[in-house]
Write a structure and sequence with these properties.
By secondary structure, this protein is an alpha/beta fold. It contains 5 helices and 3 strands, in the order ααβαβαβα.
Length: 115
């Protein structure tokens, strides 16, 4: 599945976040841990220079998304932040994605965050 979508150009991997940010409309941030995630989100949103969707797939602590949203707002960055934590088993990411044992749902904030 991954190979097919990479070949078709629907799925792209990059070790250069800035280059990826300039090309992609939606970026899924899947890190091994949440350490350094805030800086990565700011780096990507800043490099994009336009609106894009940043989906945090890494499980983070409660309140992390709000904190990062405030940081984006303070810097005048217009990316939409979505928190979509997925709990993967090592070596089973595709299976866990296709057949999750739980699904977490949230809602979008109706009003912008105050500074």
């Amino acid at each position: 599945m991954i190979r097919r979508n990479v070949r078709s150009g629907r799925l792209v991997y990059s070790s250069d976040p800035e280059e990826l940010a300039r090309k992609a409309q939606v970026i899924f941030l899947a890190e091994d841990s949440a350490e350094g995630l805030e800086e990565l989100v700011l780096r990507i949103a800043g490099a994009a220079g336009r609106f894009q969707v940043l989906s945090i797939v890494t499980p983070v602590r409660v309140g992390s998304t709000t904190k990062i949203e405030r940081m984006l707002h303070a810097k005048g960055l217009k990316s939409l932040l979505v928190c979509q934590p997925m709990f993967f088993t090592n070596g089973c990411a595709v299976e866990d994605f296709n057949w999750p044992d739980r699904i977490l749902l949230g809602r979008l904030r109706a009003k912008p965050l105050p500074p």
